[in-house]
Amino acid sequence: MKNLLCMAVACAASVAAADPNDPHVALVSVEQDASRVVKVEYTLDEPAIVTFDVKTNGVSIGVENLKMASGDLWRVVSATGAGSRRMITWPAYE
């Protein structure tokens, strides 16, 4: 699951940065602890509406499986200052 999630986040970060007019997502990291809670950290260079999705074989697992995700997502998130990061947590076991 961790490798799949890492790939999904990396692809999302690449897509978000593809257009020079879009906010730049950088320093994306993904961890999953022993209790299967996934933590995604990232930085933004300007405010953006942040969304979150997990895909398997190119297909979304569905918003109903992501309803427990929390943190800096599904709203306008302000740009991060130097050394500041944003975080999303998702209990994958849910």
Structure explained in plain terms:
- This protein has 94 residues and is of the alpha+beta class.
- 16% of the residues lie in helices and 36% in strands.
- The chain has one helix at 2-16, and strands spanning 25-32, 37-44, 48-50, 55-56, 59-60, 70-71, 75-77, 86-91.
- The strands form three sheets. A four-stranded antiparallel β-sheet has the order 1-2-8-6, with helices on one face. It has a two-stranded antiparallel sheet with strand order 3-7. Strands 4-5 form a two-stranded antiparallel ribbon.
- Strand 1 and strand 2 form a beta hairpin.
- The radius of gyration is 13 Å and the shape is globular.
- The two termini are 13 Å apart.
Oligomer: single chain
What percent strand? 35-45%
- Largest sheet entry: 4 strands, antiparallel
Secondary-structure-based class equals alpha+beta
- The share of residues in helices is 10-25%
- The overall strand count is 8
Order of helices and strands: HEEEEEEEE
Major sheet strand order: 1-2-8-6
Distance between the termini: 13 Å
* Parts with pLDDT < 50 across at least 5 consecutive residues: 1-7, 13-17
H/I helix tally: 1
